[in-house]
Amino acid sequence: MKLVVQVKLLPAAEQAAALAATLHAVNDAASWVSAVAFEHFGLKARETPLRKLCYGELKARGLGAQAAQHVIKRVVDACTTLRANIRNGNLGGERSKRRRKATSKPIAFRPDAAHTFDDRCLSWNHDAQTVSIWTTAGRMKNLRFACSPGALKQLIAHRKGESDLLHRDGMWFLIATIEVPEPQAFELKDFLGVDRGVVNLATTSDGTDHQGRRLARYRRRQARIRAELQARRTRSAKQLLRKRARREQRHATHLNHKISKQVVAVAARTGRGIALEQLQGIRERVTVPRDQRAHLSSWPFHQLGAFIAYKACRAGVPFVEVDPAYTSQRCPRCGHTARNSRRSRDLFCCRRCGLAGPADHVAAVNVRDRARTAWVFVNMPAPVPA
Fold first, then answer.
1. How are beta strands 319-322 and 272-277 bridged, if at all?
2. pLDDT at res. 92
3. SS3 at position 102
4. What is the spatial distance between Cα 169 and Cα 245, in angstroms, rounded to a whole number?
5. Cross-strand pairs, 146
6. What is the reported pTM?
7. Residues 215, 216, 219, CA angle at the centre, nearest 5°?
8. pLDDT tens digits, one per residue of 230-240
9. Distances in Å between the alpha carbon of 315 and those of 134, 193, 318?
10. pLDDT tens per residue, range 107-116
11. What contacts 166, CB < 8 A, 6 or more positions away?
12. Crossing angle, helix 213-232 and helix 247-270, to 10 degrees?
């Protein structure tokens, strides 16, 4: 299983200037390669023909051989990702504004976008906690980094593959890829269904609610503080805004980590798998009033699902995603599905058998029941040929 470890670089002033110049140079080169690829191949660029067109110019720009290869590969990977998003409908239909905008011009790379380094461009000295990295000004040695003891242990034991150089909020980071062996999944007894929502961030089929009221209050407070600082329009207010950037995002990420740890721990302790709804494209499908758009857009449901998935994999807990259709409108006892069975956001009452209870708990039970059926079909042995 592939994971990442983030370490913070501690460069001196001269080293930071060299890293910034390198990052700007490779991203400027990537934008140029993207323009060449769009002119000759559209969004269907491939590495070999693109290398023939661009490799010489990249070398002339001062990039090393391996850096030039990575720039070309980044452009090809970006085109592949864009085509996949178009094919999966993530940018809307053929006439949507987002799709037309994405396909009408070459992909552009931000000056501070992360860049990839492999073992030929980057080497680690774990004992001294330093790295040696390629820059446009030459090889930079003895660049110090800092991380937790647990992260350092993972780097020593499991680091494998490429690392990304990232500049964020005036600080430098290396995002290293580690490959951790997956534990053998245990024989499950049942499933733990999890329903994700806005008011209740996660509700399990056991009836446990992880409420989002505190997060909602925190978001409103942060929005009020941002509005007050923006209204001042002073230099100190702008400095405070930069200092507070992404604080709300970090808080939501911390909550998602806590919730996912608790859900996985309960499932592992009780010998059950975890079932989630498959919620791709929900923001494009759901329309809300104008005053609720920011609240819905900041709903970190995808991140919570990703955290649960990888933590379950690390713990050896079986994980499955099921169809989310009508999970909040179906009665888990009699199977009757009706929109008016959900009287309100919080209450479910079946129109046929009268089963009543919290709507999120009912949805989590339906997710669990669908996971049971899906798991049987997934693990059904292949039929023996006659």
1. parallel
2. 82
3. helix
4. 9
5. 8
6. 0.80
7. 85
8. 999 899 998 88
9. 37, 17, 9
10. 999 999 999 9
11. 114, 172, 173, 174, 175
12. 170
